[in-house]
Amino acid sequence: MNPAKLFTTACLATAAVLFTSCGNQTKPDQSPKPSASTGEKFVNPYPPGTYDHFKADPKYPKTYNVWKNDQLLPKTNETNSHVVISLSKQRGFLMNGDEVVIDYPICSGIKSRPTPVGDFKVLEKVVDKQSNRYGKIYDATGNIVNGDADAQLDAIPEGGKFEGANMHYWMRITWDGVGHHIGPVKRYPASHACVRGPRAVMPIVYSKMKVGSPISVQN
Q1: Residue 129's beta-bridge partner residues?
Q2: Can you list the alpha helix ranges (DSSP code H) found in 108-218?
Q3: Pairing status of strand 179-182 against strand 195-197
Q4: Domain range annotation of the chain
């Protein structure tokens, strides 16, 4: 073979290998994912304890886990805090400016009673709040006859009573009964429009907010 032609062929082969290698590289800002075809185990590329490490977990955002910025939390108070609720992620974020202080799971309203979207402010704060509308109905002997009752729609038997659901660490965002409070946190919408938060988190969030603090509910 002609030496010049041989040299050209070798260069083209080398270039093809180099371009193939570059095309398979993972960008630094992309979290590597497990390979379904090879069964490759996921390796989190970020340092443990960092927010990037928390969010890179394949179970995020459906995890029940909570992330806290322990350095920023003591510096966060009612003068610089706000809350962001993501309905699509079913996560809540206590914020200090643009920085996340706590990332926690929430549970929003079902399709027939959706949590309203928009920019709100805390209208009322009550630690030991009970619902005026949703709760349980008991008969005269103290037995529960309706564990998911609506006091406006469901009848109370003679001698029975209605007991409103606990909504501790209540922060009202609308005057028609929607607020952010402690409640059962499922990993899908399951409330009567309120935004439920974990028992271990809500007292902290509550303590960092005041009447007038912003709460943004986003899709």
Answers
A1: none
A2: 202-208
A3: parallel
A4: 49-129+168-219, 130-166
Could you read off the pLDDT of 2-49 as tens digits, one per residue?
444 444 444 444 433 333 333 333 333 344 444 444 568 999 999 999
Q: 49-129+168-219 — its CATH code?
A: 2.40.440.10
DSSP state letter for 191: B
Asked if 152 contacts 134 with a C-beta cutoff of 8 angstroms, the reply is no
Residue 139's SS3 state is coil
Alpha-carbon dihedral angle through residues 175, 108, 213, 181, given to the nearest 10 degrees: 80
Report pLDDT digits (tens) over 82-107.
999 999 999 999 999 999 999 999 99
Beta pairing, strands 81-86 & 91-96: antiparallel
- Please report, in angstroms and rounded to a whole number, the separation of the first and last CA atoms in the chain: 66
| Residue type at position 95 | M
DSSP structure class, residue 217: E
Q: Which two tokens stand for residue 138?
A: 């008991």
Q: What is the pTM of this model?
A: 0.78
H-assigned helices in 163-208: 202-208
Sign of CA dihedral 85, 210, 76, 198: negative
One-letter amino acid for residue 53 of the chain: H
| Structural contact between residues 108 and 115, judged by C-beta atoms closer than 8 angstroms | yes
